[in-house]
C-alpha cells in the first residue's frame, strides 16, 4: 500500500530564507500599494519596513532584518545544560506543530513559539549562538507584537482576559478545529484513519486502475443531523463527511466506525433494535438506511457502493417500534456518554473551562467556542484545548447535574457556576451540550497549574461519576532564561504541585471477585517450551483460555516478534499467540474452570514487573503524594488501617499530600526492614490499583520503564535512537556532551544518562498515550541486533498490565470512576 497525506509537510523547519531580499521586495510593494500606511500602522513588524522605506538610515528595524538568520541559528543551537541536551533538535524532529504550513510560510508567532520552547546556555557559545542582546531585542518585538497586533486582531489569542494577558500572554492563534484528513492512494489501495478517532475507510486493491489515484478525504462533523435523533433512532457517531476525487472505480469501499453503544443481549432488544448506517449526498439529508452493514460488538463496517465526490454517513441505533416497558430506543442499548473538559492553551488569573457532552465517543483535541460572554458582551470565537475526558454508562436520557470543584485553595469556581444542570431533552438531540465554568485566582500569588474535580450526578438517583482534570501551565514569561530542572528529579507532568486540599474525595471499594470475561479462545495446538519464558503462557491443544480483552500486544517470542492476546489459564496470566487459538464467545465455552481468576490475583500478577524495575524513590514519593487525595484510603489498602491523625506530627496535620507522603515513607521503612519478603514498588502499585488510581499507575509505569530501559541499554541506546527517531550521529553526540568526563567521553557507567534524556524526550511527544509509548518502545527494542527484551521481560509484563486495566476496573469496582 502506498499512501501519502496531502497538506502534511515535514516538521523540519526550512528557515534558509533570503530575508534581506524579502524586505527589499516589501519596500518596492509599498510604493504601489495605497493601503501600505494603514497596513503598517496595524502590524508592528510591517511598520519597521515602512519606517525604513521613509528613512534609509533608520536602524531600528525588526529582528528579522537585523538578524536574518537568527531562527536558523536557534534551530541548530543545542541546549548544553547539565541534565539534558535534548530539547531543541529532537523537538524539531518529532513535533508536528504547524504541519499545514511549509517552512517558508511560518507566521511570526510560530517562530516565537519555537523560540519559547528552547532553553539556552549563554556560557557555552559557538559561532552560531545568540547573544544576550538578541534575546532582549526579541522580547521587545514580542511586547510590540502583543500590544499592537492582538489589540487589532482579537481572534489571535488564547485567553479571554486581555488585561491578564499583559502579564501572561498565551501566544496561541485561533485556527480551524474541524479534523480533516486527505490521503492519496494508488491501485494497491489502503486504509485512511481520521486522527485520534476510531473512524476508518478501507480501500481494496484494484479500486482504481493501475496508474490512477484516489484521494480519500475524511471529516468529522461533531453535531449529527437532527432528523436521525427521535424516539425510534439515536445517533452514536459524529456525522462523517467522505470525499473522493476519482469516480472511475471498479470496487466498493468500506467505512468502519467504532460506536458509543451496543445492543443489549436480551431477546427483546435483539429483535426490536439494531445498529444501522444512514447515508446521504447532502449534509442536511434526507438520509436513507444502508443495508450492506456488518456489526461486531461495538464496531460497524459499511460497504459503500453508490460512490460520489461528497458523501455523508452517520451511525445510529434504530428501533422497529417501542414496546413497553421501553419508552425510547435508549432502553434497548448500553449507551456510553463521553465528556470533555476544554480550556485555553494557558491558564490566567481568570479563565473559563467548558464542560462538553458528546453523543458519540469521538472527542476532538480542540473545540471552537462561539458563545463566550464577558461583562454581558459576546466575545469572538475562541479555540479551546482538550484538558481531560471521561466516558460513563448512561442507560437512558436523564437530567444531569454538573459540578466543578477546585482542589487548590488558590483558585475558586465562580459561585453561580459551581453547579449546572443538563436536561435529558438536550441529550436526546444527539448534539453537543456545553456548560461554562468561570475560574478565578484568589489573591496576588504566583500563577501555577492546579487540579480540579468534575462530578456528574444523575438527578433522582444516587449514581455519581467523577474524575480529575489537571490544568495546563500558565503562559511562559517573556524575560529571563529558564534553567531546565534535573530530569531525574522532575518531569513535565511531575512538578512541585501546589497544596491540593480535597476533603470530599471517596475512592471506590475494591471487590475481590471472579473476573467477568466475555471472550475465550480454544488452543489449536500444544505449546510447551523447554526454556521457560516469563509472561508467555504454555497450553495443551483444546485448552479454553480466558482472554482479557481483544486488543493485541506485539512482543518477541522465542526468536520472532508476534502478535499476542493477554490470557488466563490455570490461574496464570500471560500472552498467547493469536494464531494458536480460535476465538469463541462466553456462551460457546464448554469448560472455563481452568481460566477463572479473581480480581485480587489479577492485581498481584499484573504488578509483578515492578519487582524488578528500577525507580527513583524521591520521584515516586513526590508523584504519589501529589496525586493521591485521601491518606486513609491509601493506608487501608497498604495494611495500615489502624493509623489515625495522632500518628502524624504537627508538620503533617494540615496538608493531605504530607499525610500521604508519611504513609508511603512508613511503608518504605517497613519494606526496608524486611527486604527478603517485601518489595516497596510492587506493594505500592498493588495498593494504587486497589483504589483505582489507574492514571497514576500508568504514569509510574512509564517513568520506571523509561529509567530501567536506559540502564539496561547502556551504550546501545545509540542504536535505539536511530530506530525510534532516526537521530543523526551529531544529534546523538549532542545528547552525550553534557555527561562527558574530563577525557571528552561518557563513562560506561554514566551512559544511562543520555539514554534517559533521549527516551524521556521521545516519550513526552506521545502526551497521555502511555500504551503507545510502551508498545513502540518494546517493538523498537525487539528489532535491535541483540534485543535486550529476550532476557529482560519486565517490559512485556508492563504491556500486560496496561492491557488489563479495563477488565480490572469493570470487575473490581461497582461504580465507573476515573483515575485519582
TrEMBL record:
Stretches assigned to coiled coil: none
Keyword Nucleus found: yes
Entry's localization field: Cytoplasm; Nucleus
InterPro entries for this protein: DEATH_SH3BP4 (IPR056183), SH3_domain (IPR001452), SH3BP4_C (IPR056181), UPA_SH3BP4 (IPR056182), ZU5_dom (IPR000906)
Superkingdom of source: Eukaryota
One CC-aspect GO term: nucleus
Main location, first listed in the record: cytoplasm
Domain (ZU5): residue spans on this chain: 179-316
Keywords: Activator, Cytoplasm, Nucleus, Phosphoprotein, SH3 domain, Transcription, Transcription regulation
Keyword Heme annotated: no
Domain SH3: residue ranges: 516-586
PANTHER family: METASTASIS-ASSOCIATED IN COLON CANCER PROTEIN 1, SH3 DOMAIN-CONTAINING PROTEIN
Subunit text: Interacts with FASLG.
Name of the protein in question: Metastasis-associated in colon cancer protein 1
Amino acid at each position: 500500500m502506498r499512501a501519502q497525506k496531502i497538506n502534511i509537510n515535514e516538521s523540519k523547519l526550512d528557515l534558509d530564507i533570503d530575508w534581506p531580499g524579502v524586505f527589499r521586495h516589501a519596500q518596492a510593494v509599498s510604493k504601489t500599494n495605497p493601503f501600505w500606511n494603514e497596513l503598517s500602522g496595524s502590524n508592528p513588524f510591517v511598520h519597521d519596513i515602512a519606517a525604513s522605506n521613509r528613512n534609509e538610515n533608520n536602524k531600528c528595524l525588526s529582528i528579522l532584518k537585523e538578524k536574518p538568520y537568527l531562527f536558523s541559528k536557534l534551530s541548530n543551537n543545542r541546549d548544553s545544560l547539565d541534565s539534558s541536551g535534548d530539547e531543541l533538535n529532537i523537538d524539531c524532529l518529532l513535533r508536528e506543530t504547524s504541519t499545514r504550513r511549509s517552512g517558508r510560510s511560518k507566521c511570526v508567532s510560530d517562530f516565537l513559539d519555537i523560540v519559547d520552547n528552547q532553553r539556552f546556555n549563554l556560557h557555552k557559545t559557538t559561532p552560531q549562538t545568540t547573544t544576550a542582546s538578541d534575546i532582549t531585542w526579541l522580547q521587545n518585538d514580542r511586547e510590540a507584537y502583543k500590544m499592537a497586533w492582538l489589540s487589532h486582531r482579537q481572534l489571535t489569542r488564547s485567553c479571554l482576559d486581555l488585561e491578564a494577558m499583559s502579564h501572561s500572554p498565551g501566544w496561541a492563534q485561533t485556527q480551524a478545529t474541524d479534523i480533516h484528513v486527505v490521503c492519496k492512494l494508488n491501485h494497491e489501495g489502503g486504509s485512511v484513519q481520521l486522527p485520534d478517532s476510531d473512524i476508518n475507510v478501507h480501500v481494496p486493491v484494484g479500486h482504481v486502475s493501475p496508474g490512477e489515484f484516489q484521494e480519500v478525504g475524511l471529516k468529522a462533523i461533531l453535531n449529527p443531523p437532527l432528523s436521525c435523533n427521535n424516539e425510534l433512532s439515536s445517533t452514536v457517531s459524529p456525522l462523517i463527511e467522505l470525499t473522493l476525487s476519482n469516480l472511475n472505480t471498479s470496487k466498493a469501499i468500506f467505512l468502519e466506525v467504532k460506536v458509543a453503544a451496543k445492543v443489549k443481549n436480551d431477546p427483546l432488544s435483539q429483535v426490536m433494535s439494531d445498529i444501522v448506517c444512514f447515508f446521504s449526498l447532502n449534509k442536511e439529508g434526507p438520509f436513507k438506511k444502508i443495508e450492506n452493514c456488518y456489526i461486531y460488538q461495538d464496531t460497524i463496517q459499511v460497504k459503500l457502493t453508490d460512490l460520489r465526490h461528497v458523501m455523508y454517513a452517520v451511525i445510529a441505533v434504530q428501533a422497529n417500534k417501542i414496546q413497553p416497558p421501553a419508552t425510547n430506543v435508549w432502553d434497548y442499548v448500553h449507551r456510553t456518554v463521553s465528556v470533555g473538559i476544554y480550556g485555553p492553551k494557558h491558564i490566567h488569573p481568570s479563565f473559563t473551562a467548558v464542560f462538553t457532552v458528546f453523543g458519540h465517543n469521538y472527542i476532538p483535541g480542540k473545540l471552537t467556542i462561539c458563545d463566550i460572554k464577558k461583562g454581558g458582551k459576546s466575545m469572538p470565537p475562541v479555540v479551546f484545548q482538550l484538558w481531560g475526558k471521561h466516558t460513563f454508562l448512561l442507560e437512558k436520557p436523564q437530567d444531569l447535574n454538573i459540578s466543578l470543584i477546585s482542589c487548590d485553595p488558590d483558585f475558586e469556581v465562580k459561585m453561580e457556576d459551581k453547579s449546572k444542570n443538563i436536561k435529558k431533552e438536550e441529550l436526546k438531540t444527539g448534539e453537543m451540550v456545553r456548560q461554562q465554568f468561570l475560574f478565578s485566582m484568589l489573591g496576588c500569588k504566583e500563577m501555577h497549574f492546579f487540579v480540579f474535580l468534575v462530578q456528574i450526578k444523575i438527578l433522582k438517583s444516587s449514581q455519581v461519576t467523577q474524575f480529575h482534570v489537571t490544568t495546563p501551565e500558565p503562559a511562559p514569561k517573556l524575560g529571563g532564561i529558564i534553567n531546565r530542572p534535573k530530569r531525574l528529579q522532575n518531569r513535565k507532568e511531575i512538578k512541585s504541585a501546589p497544596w491540593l486540599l480535597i476533603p470530599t474525595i471517596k475512592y471506590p471499594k475494591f471487590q475481590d471477585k471472579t473476573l467477568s470475561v466475555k471472550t475465550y479462545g480454544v488452543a489449536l495446538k500444544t505449546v510447551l517450551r523447554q526454556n521457560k519464558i516469563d509472561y508467555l503462557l504454555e497450553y495443551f491443544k483444546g485448552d479454553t483460555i480466558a482472554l482479557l480483552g481483544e486488543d493485541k500486544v506485539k512482543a518477541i517470542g522465542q526468536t520472532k516478534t508476534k502478535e499476542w492476546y493477554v490470557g488466563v489459564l490455570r490461574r496464570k496470566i500471560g500472552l498467547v499467540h493469536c494464531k494458536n487459538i480460535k476465538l469463541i464467545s462466553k456462551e460457546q465455552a464448554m469448560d472455563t474452570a481452568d481460566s477463572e481468576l479473581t480480581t485480587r490475583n489479577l492485581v498481584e500478577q499484573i504488578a509483578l514487573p515492578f519487582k524488578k524495575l528500577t525507580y527513583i524513590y524521591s520521584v515516586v514519593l513526590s508523584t504519589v503524594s501529589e496525586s493521591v487525595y485521601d491518606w486513609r484510603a491509601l493506608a487501608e489498602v497498604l495494611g495500615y488501617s489502624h493509623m489515625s491523625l495522632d500518628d502524624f506530627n504537627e508538620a503533617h496535620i494540615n496538608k493531605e499530600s504530607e499525610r500521604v507522603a508519611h504513609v508511603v515513607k512508613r511503608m518504605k521503612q517497613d519494606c526496608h526492614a524486611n527486604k527478603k519478603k517485601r518489595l516497596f514498588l510492587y506493594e505500592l502499585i498493588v495498593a494504587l490499583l486497589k483504589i483505582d488510581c489507574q492514571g497514576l499507575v500508568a504514569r509510574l509505569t512509564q517513568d520506571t520503564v523509561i529509567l530501567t530501559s536506559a540502564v539496561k541499554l547502556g551504550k546501545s541506546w545509540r542504536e535505539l535512537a536511530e530506530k525510534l527517531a532516526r537521530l543523526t550521529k551529531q544529534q546523538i553526540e549532542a545528547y552525550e556532551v553534557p555527561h562527558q568526563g574530563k577525557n571528552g567521553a561518557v563513562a560506561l557507567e554514566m551512559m544511562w544518562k543520555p539514554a534517559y534524556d533521549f527516551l524521556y524526550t521521545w516519550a513526552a511527544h506521545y502526551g497521555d498515550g502511555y500504551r503507545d509509548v510502551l508498545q513502540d518502545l518494546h517493538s523498537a527494542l525487539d528489532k535491535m541486533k541483540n534485543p535486550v527484551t529476550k532476557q529482560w521481560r519486565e517490559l512485556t509484563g508492563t504491556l500486560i498490565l496496561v492491557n488489563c486495566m479495563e477488565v480490572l476496573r469493570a470487575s473490581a469496582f461497582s461504580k465507573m470512576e476515573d483515575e485519582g
